[in-house]
Amino acid sequence: MTETYAVVLEEPDGSSRTVEVEPDETVLEASERTDRTVPFGCRTGACGTCAGRLLEADRAEAESDDESAAEPTDDPDVAAAFAYRREPRALKPRHREDGYVLLCIATPRMDCRVAVGSRARSGLVDNPWK
Amino acid sequence: MSDADTPGDVEPSRDHEHHGHEGPGYATPQAALEEGEREELAYVMSLYTGTDVDEPDFVAVVDLDPDSETYSEIVDRVEMPEKGDELHHFGWNACSSSCHVEGLERRHLIVPGQRSSRIHVVDTKDRRNPELVEVIEPEDVFEYDLSAPHTVHCVPEGKIIISMLGDADGELPGGFLELNHDFEIEGRWEPPGEIEMNYDYWYQPRQNVMVSTEWAAPKTYYPGFDLEDVEDGKYGRRIHFWDWENGTVEQTIDLGEEGQIPLEVRFLHTPESTHGFVGAALSSNIFHFWYDADAGEYRAEKAIDFEAREHEDWEMPVPGLTTDILLSMDDRYLFGSNWLHGELWMYDVSDPSNPRRADSLSVGGTFGEVREVQGRELAAGPQMIQLSLDGERLYWTTSLFSTWDDQFYPEESERGSVMLKADVDPRNGTLELDEDFLVDWGECPAGPARAHEIRWPDGDCTSDVWQ
């Protein structure tokens, strides 16, 4: 039996929806099976258009024997929540520490909740002079 | 009374038999100026990539005929087959550089996706209703270890060369991709390894020279502008002079601290000239370059310096960000945009070494005096510019690049871009905003879109090169 992970996408308008992601699928690919695709550009992890931010990860299914990790955490570990198909070149170390994830090349390893859309992505850089 | 009105005068010949002109374009830049008719349509790169509108990018057809009922409206949209392209720059299958090639027409637009690396071909046989006819998929581009297509120029004999800013992973080096006249990938134009960074290019075949500029690796500029990357040397400041026939770099000039991020580059239109200009976007300076015959090499000198300005809401002085330049077809004026300041300018370059400010317009952006047109608030400054062949009408759009827009003008994604126009008096060197002209991408049916590069069906001031 193949196990899917439920990824809750928090849209910029405040609404949310859940996509079921197959084990060999990226979040972008899963969203393409629905009526609304998460934003994307290069599909190779270079451009960052698809960047989302991990808000919450449920480690219960991924590590069911680890009692301490059974509850959603306030400071979710994006490296544990997603496996990458290739190197996420658009992200700098500070972005990964802040929970950013490139949804075009990321496959979830647990149920999680992710902020998506242009507002989530625009946190990658700010106006350096203002 | 003009010559043409003289009784008994013979209709002036337009067949250029003395040049053997049978193909696309015009025999000379002056012929383009004389024979080019007023632009009645514009093709404009239009995009949803990077916004929350879940739709593909499109080529907008804009009505520029003042006598038309749909003047200054988007009258057609050619949707791309996939989402996420970021349409940006584009070009023709043929221009005046092939004006001796019988049977070749200026008809197909080569429309790359900057982020997707997908390359589209749009047939404009029906000018008001162009049609997508070919698509080169990203995987076929990546096979040549190239990505991020940018500047498209047609070169003699119907070939097309596209500057590519990265390798297949969005890292350095970039290079150039060549398409044949059937819009198939012919291969890499240059031997790999000639350059690291790439951006825009222009060629001057009679002088056997091409010049190319530098932005950064796609993975660096794609996500947005990070000042740390400049400090780390990840943005360009060099220009490269190539042997056009051999496809090899003969000379590289480092423009230094005052030449950071050299983007748009133009040789003068006259095919004899070795003079040209490049806009260093971040430093907000214009460099003049020319061939120094005595030294046997090209030289570059800062010719125009736009000072950063203080703004009460900004912690640091605001650079102009000189993101686009172009030369009028008669090579008398250099026009450009300071996107962050909100300024369009016009310099007399009849002596290219000594540009003389002719006029400017303060519109939109951070400091622009004009804040709205026809009640439409301007979200961003002037960015991509295009000039009529006769040099009398300057048009511009307001989007730079989706992620960079979001940093500096976040409202651009919510309101959409606009296209505006100024009337130019080339005799007196003046610019005047035409407040009757406004095209609003905020009113697109699927939601607000951005607008970038502009072209006319019969060639424009950034499309044509002469052999």
Automatic annotation (TrEMBL), chain A:
It comes from Natronococcus jeotgali DSM 18795. The keyword Electron transport applies. Coiled coil: none annotated. This is Ferredoxin. Residues 63-77 have a biased composition (Acidic residues). Residues 5-120 form the 2Fe-2S ferredoxin-type domain. Keywords: 2Fe-2S, Electron transport, Iron, Iron-sulfur, Metal-binding, Transport. Belongs to the 2Fe2S plant-type ferredoxin family. InterPro entries: 2Fe-2S_ferredoxin-like_sf (IPR036010), 2Fe-2S_ferredoxin-type (IPR001041), 2Fe2S_fd_BS (IPR006058), Beta-grasp_dom_sf (IPR012675). GO terms for molecular function: 2 iron, 2 sulfur cluster binding; metal ion binding.
UniProtKB/TrEMBL annotation, chain B:
It comes from the Archaea. Residues 11-22 have a biased composition (Basic and acidic residues). It comes from Natronococcus jeotgali DSM 18795. Belongs to the selenium-binding protein family. Residues 1-30 are annotated as: Disordered. This is Selenium-binding protein. One of its GO terms (molecular function) is selenium binding. Coiled coil: none annotated. The lineage of its organism: Archaea, Methanobacteriati, Methanobacteriota, Stenosarchaea group, Halobacteria. InterPro entries: Se-bd.
